[in-house]
Design a protein that fits this description.
With 261 residues, this protein is mainly alpha-helical. It is built from eleven helices and no strands.
Length: 261
Amino acid sequence: MKIFAMLSRIVGFLALAALIVWSFVGMEIDGAHLPTGVAAGFSFVGRMIPHGKADFRYDLSLRDQIMQPLLDTIQMAVIGTVAGAIMAFPMSFFAARTSVFPRFLSDAIKSYLNVSRAIPTIVYALIVLSAIGLGKTAGAISIGYVTFISLSKLYAEALESVSQGPIDAVRASGGNSAQVFVYGMMPQVFPHYLATSLYSFEYNLKDSFIVGIVGAGGLGAQLLDSIHEFKLLDTGVIIALLIVLVNVVDYCSYRVRAVFS
């Protein structure tokens, strides 16, 4: 048995090594063009950074132009996250492979979620845009659906990993089904629900930029226009805003998780 386990590990390692080598070979990386490409990349990034007072004044003048798109981006992420989390909560009980519901039902829902997760957010955004038109409503709907898919799966996995001890303790003390859920299950899964929801919000902020690029509004549209028009100072400001926004949300989510952990 030990020999078989060792052989399995060796075969797995060799398969992983073969996959990595195959990927590098398939990339057909041309090292001859790498120095010029790196130089061009640094030049492109350098032009996004202000180099003098005039550039800084220009960056400050963009404040009024990008404030509303920034708020639209935040609104899309907030609405998409909240709507997706609300819909995912009941769905997770059907998707969890527990004894509460028939196994075939949870398997079917898990399969649906896995198929849906394979489709990128930008595809859902294009579908919604074609149905209801341009605007941040389409972005919020597409982000909300993607959030619903991912959180349903993550919530279900949290339910599947709960310890049976607290549940049995509540039942032994005479608790009904509602009390078992409130006192036996929720204390175990709530920290996981909160952490995954906050992480989803961080991810949705970046997704709001992506759906904005295809016509859902927000800073994504501004970013695309600035790149197309080679307004690289504008591009730098927008990217800097995204970095600051994501880090602020990350810090706030960390503080919230610390309170409830």
